[in-house]
């Protein structure tokens, strides 16, 4: 009876006060009803709700009342800053409402399935929410924790731009990595050469990290991490980077990292390397480079010098060459005087005294001394005599000797024998000294051989062809001899300037052909102190060559090929016409063609009796031909003749 009355009161009330009354009545009913009459209410709610910042959150409150009782009240509570519970929304079968006295009065609602809806979730919504279900048979509740997620902004790296010394006693600031505006707080880690640095959070001399967390006005968190490291020389080529790790709803783990960076270190020189960059085999004329390298940073200054030769008294101190910061010594077009020992010295005041800051390199320049030719420069020899040319050479290695005249090889060896000299054997002879094992190492020297004697004509007698009288003909007189012979002509004409050859002279004369010259000919004389020689020129008339009938057509004239084709075409047409005429004549002779427009006559009866006598009629062939040619020409008097 009490339960029925309470139900009616609850069903008729609709105001907040009535709702409060209903809650009190439900509580009273629960107390008045014995334990044997109470029923359990099962409430199911996720223990954790995850949502991204700015999205709407839907927190379900699934419940079941035993006995199928449908008269119950659902209420949502939050935990305030003081640790007390405050109701923010409620719902029963009659109505749903929001409490006006809380911070969620404009942001929450309860949907038809009793789920709590929070609009545009903020970081401040990260708190505990509870759902309580009450009925006449009993009550039940469930609790959930709302978590809000926001990924961080792109990482910011601030590197120490100064030069870090490896000789310091304490760790130096390396870089600061900043991760801003995220929730929950991410973690920042440091890596060197892709290896995690196990940095301590406590200050020490070797390696540690200082972290700082800031809560922004938006409620989001910002984290900065500063790495401190005592650098070593081995860190000069190392790459450092910062990596941030953060979580998102669903247990997703994400990472982001900065671009790798290197440290600018200052460390003293411990080792110096000085080596020849050019090939080990050096010859005169080569360019030589020597590289000096020190492992200090920043790079030191390099000083180069050449040490005096062992046992030298004239130069007791090294010869200073040059200094630079690149560590490269250039020697251009070296000679044998550049052979020797070179020193590279590094100036680094931070290096300890036990470190050797200088290194030496010894080079050897292969060379050839000037080639000596005997006789030298120029030698004059009488014609038909013999001559031996000698050559000698020396150098760092014994050279190979060879002779040539111009581009013609004359043989190998120190001596070259020239027997029975002629004018054609005169000229320049070159002795070359070379070292086959050292390509490009060679020297040479030239001697000019002059053959002396009386002049010799290139030709004893020559015929000069001409076509007509009065034609201009060029005569060439070539004479060998030394001293250079003087050339004279037996006639006058247009003489061109005389040309001197290697061992003689050439003269050209332009003359007009006359009957007298044809009769007497022309002579040229060559003369020097040893004697003279002459050459006779005779004139020979040459008839013009008649043009050949098969010769190709002259350029600009009409080709004969076209005329030949035309003649052949005419001949073919005439032959065809004659064949046609012969065909018609033959057919008419056999009576198989009509004789024209006149009366048709048959010379042979169509039907013959066996006893009939066949008479063969013969006509004069001359008359037949006359009749055939005159057919259609009016020659007949009434009947056309065939």
TrEMBL record:
Keywords: Disulfide bond, Glycoprotein, Immunoglobulin domain, Membrane, Repeat, Signal, Transmembrane, Transmembrane helix. InterPro entries: CD80_C2-set (IPR013162), Ig-like_dom (IPR007110), Ig-like_dom_sf (IPR036179), Ig-like_fold (IPR013783), Ig_sub (IPR003599), Ig_sub2 (IPR003598), Ig_V-set (IPR013106), Surface_Rcpt/Adhesion_Mol (IPR051116). Residues 1-39 form the signal peptide. This is Ig-like domain-containing protein. It is found in: Membrane. It is a single-pass type I membrane protein. Residues 35-149, 152-264, 270-362, 370-448, 455-540 form the Ig-like domain. It comes from Phrynocephalus forsythii. It comes from the Eukaryota. One of its GO terms (cellular component) is plasma membrane. The chain crosses the membrane at residues 565-586. The keyword Glycoprotein applies. Its main location: membrane. PROSITE patterns: IG_LIKE. One of its GO terms (molecular function) is laminin receptor activity.
């Amino acid at each position: 009876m009490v339960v029925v009355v309470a139900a009616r009161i609850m069903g008729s009330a609709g105001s907040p006060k009535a709702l409060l009354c209903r809650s009190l009545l439900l509580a009273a009913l629960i107390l008045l009803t014995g334990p044997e009459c109470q029923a359990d209410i099962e409430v199911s709610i996720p223990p954790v709700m995850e949502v991204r910042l700015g999205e709407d959150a839907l927190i379900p409150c699934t419940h079941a009342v035993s006995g199928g009782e449908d008269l119950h009240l659902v209420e949502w509570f939050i935990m305030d800053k003081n640790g007390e519970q405050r109701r923010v929304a409620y719902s029963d079968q009659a109505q749903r409402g929001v409490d006006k006295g809380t911070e969620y009065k404009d942001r929450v609602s309860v949907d038809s399935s009793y789920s709590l809806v929070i609009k545009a979730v903020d970081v401040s919504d990260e708190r505990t929410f509870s759902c309580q279900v009450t009925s006449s048979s009993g009550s039940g509740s469930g609790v959930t924790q709302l978590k809000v997620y926001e990924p961080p902004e792109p990482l910011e790296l601030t590197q120490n731009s100064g030069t870090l010394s490896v000789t310091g006693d304490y760790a130096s600031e390396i870089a600061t990595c900043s991760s801003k505006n995220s929730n929950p707080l991410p973690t920042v880690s440091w890596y060197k050469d892709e290896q995690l640095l196990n940095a301590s959070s406590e200050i020490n001399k070797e390696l540690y990290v200082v972290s700082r967390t800031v809560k922004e006005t938006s409620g989001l968190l910002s984290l900065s991490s500063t790495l401190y490291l005592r650098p070593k020389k081995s860190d000069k080529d190392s790459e450092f980077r910062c990596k941030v790790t953060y979580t998102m709803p669903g247990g997703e783990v994400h990472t982001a990292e900065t671009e790798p960076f290197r440290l600018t270190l200052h460390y003293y020189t411990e080792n110096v390397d000085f080596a020849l960059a050019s090939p080990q085999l050096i010859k005169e004329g080569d360019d030589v480079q020597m590289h000096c390298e020190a492992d200090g940073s920043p790079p030191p200054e390099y000083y180069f010098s050449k040490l005096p030769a062992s046992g030298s008294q004239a130069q007791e101190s090294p010869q200073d060459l040059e200094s630079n910061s690149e560590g490269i010594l250039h020697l251009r077009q070296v000679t044998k005087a550049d052979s020797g020992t070179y020193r590279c010295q590094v100036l680094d005041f931070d290096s300890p005294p036990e470190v050797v800051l200088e290194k030496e390199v010894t080079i050897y320049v292969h060379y050839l001394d000037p080639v000596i030719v005997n006789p030298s420069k120029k030698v004059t020899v009488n014609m038909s005599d013999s001559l031996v040319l000698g050559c000698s050479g020396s150098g760092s290695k014994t050279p190979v000797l060879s002779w040539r005249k111009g581009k013609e090889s004359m043989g190998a060896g120190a001596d070259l024998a020239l027997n029975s000299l002629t004018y054609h054997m005169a000229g320049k002879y070159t002795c070359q000294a070379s070292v086959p094992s050292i390509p490009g190492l060679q020297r040479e020297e030239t001697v000019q051989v002059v053959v002396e004697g009386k002049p010799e004509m290139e030709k004893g007698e020559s015929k000069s062809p001409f076509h007509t009288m009065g034609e201009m003909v060029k005569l060439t007189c070539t004479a060998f001899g030394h001293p250079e012979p003087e050339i004279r002509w037996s006639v006058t004409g247009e003489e061109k300037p005389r040309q001197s050859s290697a061992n003689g002279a050439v003269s050209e004369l332009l003359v007009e052909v006359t009957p007298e010259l044809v009769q007497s000919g022309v002579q040229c004389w060559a003369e020097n102190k040893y004697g003279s020689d002459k050459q006779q020129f005779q004139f020979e008339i040459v008839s013009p060559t008649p043009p050949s009938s098969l010769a190709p057509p002259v350029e600009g004239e009409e080709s004969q090929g076209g005329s030949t084709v035309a003649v052949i075409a005419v001949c073919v047409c005439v032959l065809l016409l004659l064949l046609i005429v012969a065909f018609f004549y033959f057919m008419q002779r056999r009576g198989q063609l009509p004789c024209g427009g006149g009366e048709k006559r048959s010379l042979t009866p169509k039907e013959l009796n066996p006893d009939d006598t066949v008479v063969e009629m013969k006509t004069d062939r001359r008359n037949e031909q006359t009749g055939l040619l005159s057919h259609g020409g009016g020659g007949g008097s009434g009947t056309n003749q065939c």
